[in-house]
Amino acid sequence: MVESGSILELHSQCGISETMLAKTFVPRHLLDSRCFSSVNSKILKVGDVLREARVFSSEDVKGYAEVSHDWNPLHFDQESARKAGFENRLVHGMLVSSMFPRIISAHFPGAVYVSQTLHFRSPVYIGDDILGIVQATTLRETKNKYIVKFSTKCIKNHSELVVLDGEATAILPNLEMLQPSHLE
Amino acid sequence: MVESGSILELHSQCGISETMLAKTFVPRHLLDSRCFSSVNSKILKVGDVLREARVFSSEDVKGYAEVSHDWNPLHFDQESARKAGFENRLVHGMLVSSMFPRIISAHFPGAVYVSQTLHFRSPVYIGDDILGIVQATTLRETKNKYIVKFSTKCIKNHSELVVLDGEATAILPNLEMLQPSHLE
């Protein structure tokens, strides 16, 4: 576990409401990262950890298949999943991976993804409680932007079991982090 | 360009109909990779290339944001995209990346993703014509399954411009490829 530095948590339950987003398409406060007060802002430093929990539902898996066109039977047919050695239907690995850019861009609107490595180490089943953990490991300023490397991993069901890990690099427009209270 | 070996192409236009999938949830022929005739089957070998073209629409980007919760303004607000140095609204990099497991699992239902590296080299804009290219580079049999490494890349608008590349590893249940005619 890499939990030094400050820890910021987002939960789907208490974060951005999907209904709200669907209505407004994208809220104004996501379009302007400077609209939060300095009292609540925090400057990212190496070691800081950002986290978000999520449970992927059957509807999430279907929604992801509709947009990705990835209808691998492992995600839809229990018998196919069992034949392949799994206990149940799997969540698409790339859907789980989407937690990393989501966590980064929720704190740094306008972040540009440069790279991501992904190792799918253990199955994620529909209904598993997944915690995405993103930690800044290196930070470099260039032309008023910031190139930040993050270690990225997901653990499941409140255990130490890493289901997915890797590394991401993103270009951040600034180092001021949006705080969870601003996402509610 | 890596186009040696046989080339199989899928096009969204002539591939699986989303409407059909939405109605049946997942077609029977995707649940049983043995239901195609040996006349039309082909055994994967090192060097074989699988390809699929796709144009990501504004609705695709919104659909992906709804399922991933990634509402980065670069994907929704032209002004934010321009401020960040882009010509227009970007398609989520991880949505473009979803082409790789989609291409692999469309040919090998039951494929299990092991790893993926991703380098986002150039922006993908809504409306760009993206060609996903997946080539088998190494192949190893183990316990009646096959561990296959693929080089993976996307080029855009019929140019040589690589917008995204990397490498994927997948475990395939067998080496018999579904052919496009079986996906129509």
List keywords for this structure.
homodimer, 184 residues, alpha+beta, Thiol Ester Dehydrase, Chain A, 6 helices, 23% helix, disordered N terminus
What does it look like?
The structure is a homodimer of 184-residue chains. The first copy, chain A, is α+β, with helices and mostly antiparallel strands and 184 residues long. Chain A has one domain: Hotdog Thioesterase (Thiol Ester Dehydrase, Chain A). The first copy, chain A, contains 6 helices and 8 strands. Chain A has helices at 18-24, 28-31, 58-68, 78-83, 93-97, 99-107, and strands at 7-11, 42-43, 49-55, 112-120, 129-142, 145-156, 162-172, 176-177. A 6-stranded mixed beta sheet of chain A has the order 1-3-5-6-7-4. In chain A, strand 5 (129-142) and strand 6 (145-156) form a beta hairpin. The longest helix of chain A has 11 residues, at 58-68. Chain A is elongated and about 55 Å long. The model of chain A is unreliable at 1-9 and 11-38 (pLDDT under 50). Strand 4 of chain A pairs antiparallel with strand 4 of chain B. Chains A, B: This is 3-hydroxyacyl-[acyl-carrier-protein] dehydratase, mitochondrial isoform X1. Chains A, B: One of its GO terms (biological process) is fatty acid biosynthetic process. Chains A, B: Residues 53-145 form the MaoC-like domain. Chains A, B: Keywords: Lyase. Chains A, B: It holds the Pfam family MaoC_dehydratas.
